[in-house]
Design a protein that fits this description.
Layout (H helix, E strand, L loop, with lengths): L1 H21 L5 H4 L22 H7 L15 H7 L42
């Protein structure tokens, strides 16, 4: 008898699932979603964790799997925020990688810390 009762219960549950599915109330697994995992828009995915979405990196010609595309020691997202070029490890062309110098956007040939060469004194 126990086997028959189990089969009857399973058949009843299956019937209930089919009925609910028929009226548009499908279980999460059948809908292809997991209610415990938030849905993330594809445009928001940041595979390498550099602060730029994969879609933005692709649009800029950057590598969405490499946080520092140009290898200068500064993540691509930070370079964009700082006004640097994430394609160029030496944005200002002074021969020092952006990640190694104090002011990566100073004029070419200007030593870091020597602002008077650019007409700016210390503190200005």
């Amino acid at each position: 008898m126990k086997t028959r009762r189990t089969m009857t219960t399973a058949a009843g549950l299956l019937s209930a699932a089919v009925l609910l599915w028929g009226v548009g109330i499908a279980p999460a697994a059948a809908r292809g979603t997991d209610d415990l995992v938030p849905e993330v828009e594809a445009a928001e995915v940041d595979t390498d964790g550099d602060g730029l979405s994969d879609a933005d990196e692709a649009a800029m010609g950057l590598d969405p799997n490499d946080a520092d595309t140009d290898g200068d020691g500064i993540a691509d997202g930070a370079e964009i925020e700082l006004g640097l070029d994430p394609h160029n490890p030496d944005t200002d062309g002074d021969g020092i990688a952006d990640g190694l110098e104090a002011e990566p956007n100073d004029a070419p040939g200007v030593e870091d810390g020597n602002h008077s060469q650019r007409g700016r004194g210390p503190g200005r």
